[in-house]
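Reviewers of the previous submission asked for a worked example of the structure-prediction workflow described in the proposal, so we include one complete record here. The input consisted solely of the amino acid sequence. No template or homolog information was supplied to the procedure at any stage.
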Amino acid sequence: MATINLKVNGKNHQIEVAPDTPLLYVLRNHLRLNGPKYGCGMEQCGSCMVLIDNQAVPSCVRPCDGLSAAEIQTLEGVGTPEKPHPLQQAFIEEQAAQCGYCINGMIISAKALLHKNPKPTDEEIKHALQTVLCRCGTHARILRAVKRAAFEL
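From that input alone, the workflow returned the following structure tokens.
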């Protein structure tokens, strides 16, 4: 066990865990942040995405050790139910979720894209979201939500 210092959603946390503990486990089990989901456990589905220094990164196998200097943001840090981020609001308005399991990864990946490229093309949006699997088929609504958010930001 080691004391790991993490800055998550603007707050500093000290956690006692094994250094190789996946970040996802720390977020969900220790910090009770349930936006990132456990999906495949192999960095292939995108449901566990978080922002690390504004880059969308899968958290399911990434060890928490070595992240003490990083800014980590989860879905809970993007906006609140009372004041959703424009991207979250666009997903709500476009009804871009069906089962909702992929939405964490979609919003986190879209936020990283819009941070880097505030006016992306459809192809750039599709490319940014290609690592997040959605089995419900709401891709057209998700694309519209990201475009709406880009327009409103």
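The first helix runs from residue 23 to 30. We consider this example representative of the routine output the project will generate in years two and three.
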